[in-house]
Specification:
This protein is an alpha/beta fold. It folds into 2 domains: 265 residues, 3-Layer(aba) Sandwich (Rossmann fold); 90 residues, ANL, C-terminal domain (GMP Synthetase, Chain A, domain 3, 2-Layer Sandwich), CATH 3.30.300. It is built from 13 helices and 21 strands. It has an 11-stranded mixed β-sheet. The longest helix is centred in the N-terminal third of the chain and has 22 residues. The termini are far apart.
Length: 445
């Protein structure tokens, strides 16, 4: 309790308190209130962007989103989708003319499939992020996150080290009962030490990269080591594939909750006990669109398009984040009023594409490597329409029959003339953010 009070005082001193924002979203009691909130903040954002952001001033005039100083929300979906290419080309035009009136800073996307995109965020954006995270922990997971003992298994150098180095970081970690474990480099020695830390610290909450949690569980299983079962286990930062979920839940002995967010546009969604991902409608306005940019129906997969409602320094309006998701039902059995996604299916570049435009889901390829005892780790790369490279860390004798079967099944979907290149390596390279990419399409990247 004393730690929590000290932490709240520190937030107030630093001007990072978010009590007002949290109070506003906590009182959203039904679906109508969700719609009212989004309409209110979307209107404010569009007016601000029209007056202060040169790129949007021009675009809004072209499509008629602003008429005589009034926002015409019915024309919102006519606003062209914002892509990373547009952001690079019109970077200066996308920055608000009044950004220096806020506490602003630079951030950038991961850039795992290309050149990172640099952008500006501010203190207002941060307050809404913090309020959103608090809402998820308290109202969906039922846990007081700042107070409980937690272990964070994280892989990004800039995220990890900025929060764990120096006296200031040590004080913050002490106040918030946090132990950081670096998943950027996870040798067997590291993983053995991490398991000892988890078992001795006995955290209420463990949060980590999906891939890092998965690899830790695979190691524990191979070495016949038990892992302490936390009250809450959260997977984040990477796509939580079905086989990963199954392994993590089996080894930890508890449900894993999937969390979806990004650097560019706030925390987006979090899983509830019934397995649906609730969209945090008070942070961003999310659309799921098909290849023709039409809204999908429940159960259909599409591109994730996001409008951040609170970053006024450099607004992201109808931003194509690069992810794919399946739209869920409007209502969930858990009773929460927020809309849902059924699942995040991965990055667009996780999926392969044929020359005729046919998209092959990335999980088709990952499934080919399941239950192969000789495969310790793998990565599947689409280098061209007719060329697939398989990076494999092998263990024991290679099963020639299974190897041939994998090739046959790849050619079944990619074409008989598809060239398959096997490359046996000592390790699979991670992204600069410490993430594993199981499938990667250079054609779509």
């Amino acid at each position: 309790m004393i730690k929590k009070q000290l932490w709240n005082i520190a937030l107030k001193i630093k001007g990072k308190g978010f009590r007002r924002e949290y109070h506003e979203i906590k009182n959203i009691s039904n679906e109508d209130k969700v719609s009212e909130f989004q309409e209110k903040y979307l209107t404010k954002l569009l007016l601000h962007a029209y007056k202060n952001v040169p790129y949007y001033h021009r675009i809004f005039k072209e499509v008629g989103v602003i008429n005589d100083g009034t926002v015409v929300l019915s024309k919102f979906n006519q606003i062209p989708i914002l892509t990373k290419e547009i952001m690079r080309k019109h970077h200066k035009e996308l920055i608000s003319k009044d950004y220096t009136t806020r506490k602003w800073y630079y951030n950038s996307s991961g850039g795992s499939t290309g050149e990172p995109v640099r952008f500006i965020q501010d203190d207002q954006y941060n307050r809404w992020c913090a309020a959103t995270n608090k809402y998820y922990y308290e109202n969906i997971l039922g846990i007081d996150e700042p107070s409980v003992k937690k272990i964070i298994l994280w892989g990004s150098e800039r995220d990890l080290f900025e929060g764990t180095r120096g006296l200031k970081a040590k004080v913050i970690n002490w106040l918030t009962n946090t132990v950081f474990l670096n998943s950027f480099k996870m040798t067997e020695e590291d993983m053995g030490r991490y398991i000892k830390t988890i078992n001795s610290y006995k955290p209420d909450l463990i949060r980590g990269y999906a891939g890092s949690l998965y690899e830790l569980c695979r190691f524990a299983e191979r070495k016949n080591l038990n892992l302490y079962t936390p009250k809450i286990l959260i997977s984040a930062a990477e796509t939580l594939r079905d086989e990963m979920r199954e392994k993590i839940e089996d080894v930890f002995g508890t449900k894993v909750y999937d969390f979806y967010g990004s650097r560019e546009v706030v925390s987006l969604a979090g899983e509830c006990k019934y397995g649906l991902m609730h969209l945090f409608a008070f942070g961003g306005y999310v659309e799921i669109r098909d290849n023709n940019n039409q809204a999908v129906k429940e159960g259909e997969e599409g591109k994730v398009i996001v409008t951040d409602l609170h970053n006024y320094s450099m607004p992201f309006i109808r931003y194509e984040i690069g992810d794919m998701a399946v739209l869920g039902p409007e209502k969930c059995k858990c009773g929460n009023v927020l809309p849902t996604l059924k699942k995040i299916t991965g990055r667009i570049t996780d999926h392969f594409v044929k020359e005729d435009g046919t998209v092959i889901h990335g999980e088709y390829f990952t499934h080919l490597f399941y239950l192969k005892d000789w495969v310790k780790a793998f990565q599947i790369i689409q280098e061209d329409y007719k060329r697939i490279r398989l990076l494999v860390v092998s263990e024991g004798e290679i099963n020639v029959s299974e190897k041939r079967d994998i090739e046959d099944k790849i050619k079944l979907v990619m074409g008989k003339d598809c060239k398959i290149i096997w490359e046996f390596v000592d390790e699979i390279p991670k992204t600069p953010q410490g993430k594993y990419l199981y499938t990667k399409s250079l054609v779509r990247g």
